[in-house]
Amino acid sequence: SMNATSRQPFIRQWAALTSRYGRNLIRDRKTMAVLIGQVPVMAVLIAFLFPGDLLALPDEEPGKSAQFVFILVTASIWLGLITSCREIASEREIVVRELSVGIRLDAYLAAKVAILFVLSAVQIGLLTGIALSLQPTHGSASTTLQLYLVLLATAWASVSLGLAISTLAKSVDQATSFVPLVLIPQLFFAGAIIPVAKMSAVTKAIAALVFARWSFAE
């Protein structure tokens, strides 16, 4: 009943919703193939854009090393957005119905976040692992771990933004159409195309709000 459901504590609803969402996502093999399969392709293409041993001797071509990292940041943002932007928009009728019978909105959103964050961890692991296997770094394992964590934090921020888009969008098509509008400012104001030091005061203020700027700076 509605009253019984609404009295369930957050953690119980969250666990049940997370389990259901995780099972449904794993069963959707076509979607999983796209979400996971695109990552190795992206990683290989990014690595092959640059000459070999790019990161082994980074001081020789610092500009290209920065470009390599910036493209990895951009790929992480793309993965987070494209993975999450359709989630809520595609289930709007189901969400409304479930909320009407006592499902907690915070538990529903937290379940989405939990599964998408795990999925992002796998995607970024593949992206980082493959890209750096083709472009090995000159540093230790801690350097690779640091890059992975920065890219993962970037993807998680992007997932959160994608869920916000999905909440506001009235349809899946509309949610998808918002992605370029969100992605482009991340590219322009990250500080890779135009250094932040050379930006105007207004542009610097915008850049300070763009999470790609902080990811690239790290």
Describe this structure as you would to a colleague.
By secondary structure, this protein is mainly α. 76% of the residues lie in helices and 0% in strands. It is built from 10 helices and no strands. The protein has helices at residues 2-6, 10-27, 29-48, 62-84, 92-100, 105-134, 141-168, 172-188, 201-208, 211-217. The longest helix is centred in the middle third of the chain and has 30 residues, at 105-134. It is globular. 32% of the residues are buried. The model has no long low-confidence stretch (mean pLDDT 84).
Kindly summarize this structure in a few lines.
The protein is mostly helical. It is built from ten helices and no strands.
Structural key phrases:
single chain; 218 residues; mainly alpha; 0% strand; globular
Distance between the termini: 50 Å
Radius of gyration using CA atoms only: 19 Å
What is the mean predicted local confidence, pLDDT?
84
Chain oligomer state: single chain
Low-confidence stretches: none
Helical stretch tally: 10
**Main structural class:** mainly alpha
Helix content: over 70%
Helices and strands, in order, run as: HHHHHHHHHH
